[in-house]
């Protein structure tokens, strides 16, 4: 049960943070993994690291997933080198801050290009291969920010993450006849390189507001992605699944502190 051996998995934004965690879980489970990112140097490092973990093949393909032509070349390269694509993890994304009052058209366009258009372009580029798989899986990394919560400075980020869910729901319907499922993971506060840079005191204060009393790890997201990629998850589609340690549950910090 729940085997991923023999599956070919494409992960965008796979050289750091949540994307690395997703790729690491799949590689450890014995899947063939295509590491997608813009930096060839980062790709080479990650391919070397992940190749030591499991029995599958790990390759790297450089691509700018905000550009449709680059995505098409990416999909073709993965099919050529690994023989097909069974699972697409559309994870690439950015989250720079920009207050609404000063947000520039360029900042908004970049956010939508990288977070929304890249998701659609990636799925389009891999659609033939996913259909040929006979049990294709699309797993989108969204966020609690936008679909569930808001945070000052990230209005455009929240809008992009909510937009991914709009795409997911219709894609799940359109692609169901091809036996492709489409789901999204909504991470809460995950301890990535960017978050760690804020300092231990700040991270401790964030963890204190989470019922699980800790920040998530990239592997926490990777484990759910791996489950959604299995045959056993074939009847799950069009779903937005929150992985946040209960972060979005309390009405206030007091609701957490009173049970500790």
How would you summarize this macromolecular structure in one to three sentences?
Helices cover 45% and strands 14% of the residues. It has helices at 17-28, 40-51, 68-82, 105-133, 155-175, 193-196, 200-208, 218-228, 253-257, and strands at residues 8-12, 32-37, 58-62, 87-90, 137-141, 181-187, 240-243.
Strands of the largest sheet, in order across it? 3-2-1-4-5-6-7
Order of helices and strands: EHEHEHEHEHEHHHEH
Radius of gyration: 18 Å
**CATH level 1 class label:** Alpha Beta
Number of domains: 1
**How large is the share of residues in beta strands?**
5-15%
Could you characterize the architecture of this molecule?
The chain is an alpha/beta fold and 260 residues long. The chain has one domain (8-245, 252-257): NAD(P)-binding Rossmann-like Domain (Rossmann fold, 3-Layer(aba) Sandwich), CATH 3.40.50.720. The protein is 45% helix and 14% strand. The protein contains nine helices and seven strands. The protein has helices spanning 17-28, 40-51, 68-82, 105-133, 155-175, 193-196, 200-208, 218-228, 253-257; strands at residues 8-12, 32-37, 58-62, 87-90, 137-141, 181-187, 240-243. The chain has a seven-stranded parallel sheet, with helices on both faces. Strand 2, helix 2 and strand 3 (58-62) form a beta-alpha-beta unit. Helix 1 packs across helix 8, helix 3 (68-82) runs parallel beside helix 4 (105-133) and helix 4 (105-133) packs parallel to helix 5. The longest helix has 29 residues, at 105-133. It is globular. The model has no long low-confidence stretch (mean pLDDT 96).
